[in-house]
Amino acid sequence: MTSRRTPPFGRALCAMITPFTDEGLLDLDGAQRLADRLVSEGCDGLVLSGTTGESPTTTDAEKSALVRAVADAVGDRAAIVAGIGTADTRHTTELALEAEKAGADGLLVVTPYYSRPPQDAVEAHFRAIADASGLPLALYDIPGRTGTRIEPETMLRLAGHPRIVAVKDCAYDLLGTQKVLAATELAYYTGCDEYVLAMYAIGGAGYISTVANVIPRHFRSILDAFEGGDPDEAIRRQQLTIPLTELMMGSGLPGTVTAKALLGALGLPAGPVRAPLRPAGRETVDGLRTAYERLVAAPAGV
Length: 302
What we know:
By secondary structure, this protein is of the alpha/beta class. It has one domain: TIM Barrel (Alpha-Beta Barrel). The protein has an 8-stranded parallel β-barrel, surrounded by 5 helices. Strand 7, helix 8 and strand 8 form a beta-alpha-beta unit. Helix 2 packs parallel to helix 3 and helix 3 packs parallel to helix 4.
């Protein structure tokens, strides 16, 4: 098996939910307890204030406070990657500087959304953020939400910037991904839980997973099995996740909603979602709990 470059933020990253109190306020104690559990269960890094972290409905002050609290909780045991993406280059730059002050190790920067900028403007946006801060950047390519792709040719140009080091890939374009992987040093993390093994097998760095909020150790074990020379076991472990991943990510509800519902059912820090999101219904929660229990009860393998 070919050797891999050391990924900038580790291999196994969780797109962590943002816990709230029953009153809808930021729950920093809950965030610290959840972060400690995720790291203890195998996460190399935590991505805060991303899509799963409800970044559109948390304030700038809450984002900074969350980074500080989680960094205090995990210390040097895991990388802290702060989601700072907005539709406004100036605002994103301000968030980058605040995240750096708060103790983040890296930044996750999504393509500007709604305005649908052309590729030269997308490139200029990312370069402006990379130039403004001393932290390494992961570009977040999720055209299904932003309306704009980071085209492979744009990725190839951006890869030359010394602080643009990684990609969270939710573009569902494995051909384009492989073109960039073959030609650059960018570390590709899949943001699609069903692609964890597939991305790793073609040279990706690992994953940034929503489902890992509830089964962090299991997702880590997929990469460990593959890295340990047992692809059949890696396949088995990936396939075990299908029912839960489908319920959490393919049921028509946002992953934030399903992750918080299941975490809450398991007695772990979560709390409500913020409007316009709405909580999952009882039938959904029961289905998630059943799928989770079946997965954790599955044989460990040989």
